[in-house]
Amino acid sequence: MASYFPMLQQFMTSAATNSEAIVNEAIPIVNATMAATEGQTVFPTDVSSFITFLYSYSALRDWFKLIVIGGLFESCRRALMSLYYKVGDSFFIRASFDQSDASYNWILVWLSKQPSWSKTRDMQITTRAGGGNSPAVILEGEEESANQFYKSSRKISYLPSASLTYSLWYKRRWMTITRVQQQTYMRHRLFFPPLYAPDPFLHRGMYGDKENTLYISILTRDHNILTELLQEARQFYMAGQEHNMCIYVSDSTGSHWNHVACRAKRSMRSIVLDPGVKDILLEDARDFLRSKSWYAERGIPFRRGYLLYGAPGSGKTSMIHCMAGELGLDVYIISLSRAGLDDASLSELVNALPERCVAIMEDIDAAFTHGVSRENPSESGEEDAEAKKANPGGQTVAAPTTTTSKLSLSGLLNALDGVGAQEGRILFATTNKYSALDPALCRPGRMDLHIEFKNASKYQARELFNRFYLPTPSAEGAEDSDEKETVDSGYDTDSTRGSTPPSPTSDEQQEKTEKDTEESDMAFKSSNNFSPFKGIRHAGRAPDFGRTRIAELALQFSDVIPERECSMASLQGYLMAYKTRPVEAACEVGAWVDKEHAARLVKEQQEKEKGAVAKEKAKDAKKREKDNKEIKSAAATAPAPALAPCACQKVPTCATCGGASVEKLPPSSSKLGSPVVELSPQASVPVDANIATPLPCLSPVAVAA
Ligand SMILES: Nc1ncnc2c1ncn2[C@@H]1O[C@H](COP(=O)(O)OP(=O)(O)OP(=O)(O)O)[C@@H](O)[C@H]1O
């Protein structure tokens, strides 16, 4: 403040010289309050004189009045507005719904059911419903039309326009809905670690995402109205989701869950396991969900973990999805191999799980072989070779190789059962390498139930066939008489859709199928972008067999399948190649099994050879390492190298270095305890003239004299 005074003083001085009137007016006042020197305007030194000095300017006086009066008016306006809002607010109930919360979707679905919504004239159209970050109100009939036609799989849906306020009536109360879209500002985890940034919106990614929030205001003072609205919205939503389950994955920052899709629930019947396995899993999970108070009474954390391990393609993932559907829970997929996932973000992810859900960690062993270790991630790479542990079954743990993940095993264990771990969650972990898992991860409390999934048994093969070629009721009665086949493939083509198909005999049907296949092959090849491909085309039609016929074929099929040799996925793949030809599927499976067997033998042989080569290499490396170690330790403990004496005890000039001396060493200086001679090339020894040819240097070995 003090620094402004000289400037003001200067300004005043110049003002005084420029305007005599002002000076004349000012001087008496200034004279009255301060000491003035002649010919020089003196600036007021105290506040009251300064104000008086300013007030002496008429323009300043007017400005001052304006400021005071304007300020007074603005303050009154603000006070009145705030009073108005306060009074208005007291008649309203307001609620907000963040997009990241499930209730946001409830309100959107509820909104779609309101008659007034269908009359709205300002809306945003989106085709991202059910996926991405933008759930929207799917139009009536869109669901069905998207299922019926192949051409467009994107459903059109409406969203309330951003920043527009919609008004409608709910239970004779006037209410408004506004959707506000905001750009979340970048706050990087590096600068604002979660500890210091409790607000979930603070670390959403480098550049920030668009966040939607719905604001609802209801003209009522009755809170029950809002509760009723929420319950109704949830009911609408649940009713729509009865046959679906939602899938969530972590977002790019790895600390929040994003809704990615809603999938139709898969029927438990479609999974074929050995008798009893499905029941064990399902009953256990149901029992767990019913036992919250039981856990609370005993102080046991209300969590359950299942470890599904075994052969690839044996149905582990499918089983988890079926169970989630059966239990009516949403699925949260935790990808441990996702780049950048570290202990802190995994912990945040697990803490952000809802109370009842199914969390999946697929291929949990992959996380280990890619570097999850108990050690600090930065150090573990160096200790890979030594990092071998034994599991309860006595098997050796695969040592972590490289450290690409920032996740440590202790971080994973803490996330699973740390203080913040969500209550009521069911965790499923899958692995193909059970023995590679750390015992700490598999212990009860983390993985309570371990279930092995094996390759297909004959029973599974038969059941798979039965489920693959579903019998048609119309053929049930007819099959006993003449086994007529009607058309039903489940994959009907465009040309036949909507028309009632004829019922040709088996031969006719076969011919037709082949013809169809040929025609579609030709059409496909004649198209410009034809390229040879591997795979199974969806075309053709299946004969309509009754239950008995299918069962016969299934038996024939399963008889040929060797016990526990083929995976269920490979059997399903085989049947897909014969999806419209069950008879051929049953007849030709023998050839397929032989082929698979031969391929497996070749693969095993190759793997064996690869393994043998790797083993040989490892053995060589080990031997080399051992030799090096021995040489090093011998060099460390051995005395100075001794040389074998020359037979004549006269060492001539070396042929290579040109000079040498022979010293008799005392016996104690020899490692072998024997007298040795040592060559010291630096010392010069007179050359014996009698020796005509110089000898080469002696080799540095200690020898017995
Ligand atoms: N027991 C089974 N019953 C019915 N279908 C099965 C079964 N096992 C596998 N399949 C089919 O095989 C395919 C692959 O199955 P899935 O992904 O569940 O196997 P997985 O054990 O999880 O394999 P991976 O270990 O390689 O992840 C799915 O399409 C599924 O329908």
Automatic annotation (TrEMBL):
Subcellular location: Mitochondrion inner membrane
Coarse class of the protein's main subcellular location: mitochondrion
Catalysed reactions, semicolon-separated: ATP + H2O = ADP + phosphate + H(+)
Signal peptide: none
Family annotation (PROSITE patterns): AAA (PS00674)
GO molecular function: ATP binding; ATP hydrolysis activity
Segments forming domain AAA+ ATPase: 302-457
GO cellular component, one term: mitochondrial inner membrane
Membrane topology: Single-pass membrane protein
Pfam families: AAA, AAA_lid_BCS1, BCS1_N
Keyword Cell wall biogenesis/degradation set for record: no
Region (Disordered): 372-402, 473-536, 603-634
Family: Belongs to the AAA ATPase family. BCS1 subfamily.
Name of the protein described by the UniProt record: Mitochondrial chaperone BCS1
Species this chain originates from: Tricholomella constricta
